[in-house]
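PROTEIN DESIGN WORKSHEET
SECTION A - STRUCTURE
LENGTH: 135
TOKENS:
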């Protein structure tokens, strides 16, 4: 199994960086509102540059004047397995084994967009239908 990590990133605007280990790097998406366990929430995920695997354990401050300046903490981490699809196809179904994020999710590339995806929780025993959207 490969690893995943979600960084809570207090940069210019608070956002969450969702990262999946793929082919020896961390494929990364910035999620402005953060991941959700409610399947009715479709979270915009903007694909950003790949990161080195070592970045999965990073917590600290990115200095002022550098790209992404601000506080970074690990919000969740764990492993994942691919259920179906691929990033090349623009639809990747995964199962996350994290402390906060568990169960099936799908990353879905928006048609006609280069870097815009959606992260959506699938309906399963780990979904939380009671939580209202947090943004």
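SECTION B - SEQUENCE
RESIDUE ASSIGNMENT:
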């Amino acid at each position: 199994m490969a690893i995943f990590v979600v960084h809570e990133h207090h940069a210019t605007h608070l956002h969450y960086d969702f990262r999946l280990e793929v082919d020896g790097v961390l494929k990364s998406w910035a999620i402005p509102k953060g991941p959700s366990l409610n399947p009715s929430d479709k979270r915009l995920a903007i694909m950003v540059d790949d990161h080195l695997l070592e970045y999965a354990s990073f917590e600290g401050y990115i200095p002022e004047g550098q790209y992404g300046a601000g506080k970074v903490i690990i919000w969740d981490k764990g492993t994942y397995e691919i259920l179906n699809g691929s990033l090349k196809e623009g639809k990747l179904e995964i199962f996350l084994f994290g402390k906060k994020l568990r169960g099936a999710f799908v990353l879905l590339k928006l048609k006609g967009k280069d870097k815009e995806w959606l992260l959506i929780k699938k309906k399963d025993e780990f979904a939380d239908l009671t939580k209202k959207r947090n943004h």
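SECTION C - NOTES
The longest strand covers residues 70-86.
The mean pLDDT is 94.
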